Predict the structure of Dimethylhistidine N-methyltransferase EgtD.
Amino acid sequence: MVWRTILIDNRGYVLSLPNLLEDQLENRLEARLEDRPEDRPEDRLEDRPEDSQHGQRWVIKDLLAASRQHSATATLEKQEGQDVIAGLCAEAKSLPPKYFYDARGSELFDQISELSEYYPTRTEVAILKQSADAIAHTTGPCQIIELGSGSATKARILLSAYEAANHPLRYVPIDVSGTALKESVQQLLQEYPTLSVQGLVSTYELALTQIASQPPNSQIPTRLICFLGSTIGNFKPHEYEQFLAKVSAALRPGDYFLLGIDLQKEVSLLEAAYNDSLGVTAEFNLNMLRHLNHRFEGNFNLSNFSHSAIYNAQKHQIEMYIESLVSQTVELKSLSYTAHFATQEKLLSEVSRKFNLSETTQQLAAYQLPVLKTFTDEKQWFGLLLCQRSAATAGITEEM
Ligand code: AVJ
């Protein structure tokens, strides 16, 4: 299968040529940017539905590459690594969890999800299998948009239910790992002969902005945004609120939101899930440093760091740390940044919040995302909430 990568900028302009090889992207894109005619209406993405006009069933757009090129003020890496510098500069060091997910990190996460101690994936998959038909029946035909699609294991459960319900199959996977995205799309297209796919290599932020600006698809106007796996638990409280506001703004009244949340439970179960006996979580955690080495010409020596994870009961969250075993200095060359670590200094690499069903249900309603149906397992370990975007209430401006 020949891959066709299309790049679009923030305003939805197509920048690249078909059949671009990934390692050539940056140079080619720069060249294209220079000879790009200003604001040609025929280049608008919305006017080029990939299925009907080009006879294609898929398109993958790299919003990250496109947005990086957008800023003329800083070098590509400087722009991109600002969050890394900010995290390492802080009194209490931290790094954004999105840096877990290079190709290796996505692979390691798949391994985590199969560990005996790591109950969330298995539990959510079981709930999804039981509820997928009800979800398909409730939403009717819709575009399935998934934030953080990874290897799309859970999407398959939904797609099969929509297929069984004779709904048209339209999937919009979004992931920061281009490799994971391409591999999963390639597989899905083979498994579902009628499926059409629009993949986005993107952060959630950028993707939600893009989704908010898309006019309704004439064939399948209803959208279902899926955010599974309790990845929402990675957000700090203010980021969580901003995120719900963005989802709400991206959806039109009548659209759906399917949210997976890991529920509060016994501490021993939680801590075991993030300190597995095979050490896969430890490897996943430290892989972030390898990713930073690769991405920003860093010299983190992984054997000088170790993994730890504890449950913070006050904040109802797992906190995962990378601890420095020695006093050391690490340089990230392409960011022109040097960080010092003291012996036993801890860097927070992830928080994984654990939720309360009724509290979360109330919060969703406050963002015009009232819960229509709640699905859970018999132990109440994990919750799957199907919400429907309501019409704006008095005092809140409708943006669509
Ligand atoms: C993918 C964010 C849901 O928080 O449980 C697994 C990531 N980190 N083991 C989680 C993770 C360590 C996972 N999420």
User: Anything to note?
Assistant: The longest strand covers residues 305-312. The mean pLDDT is 86.
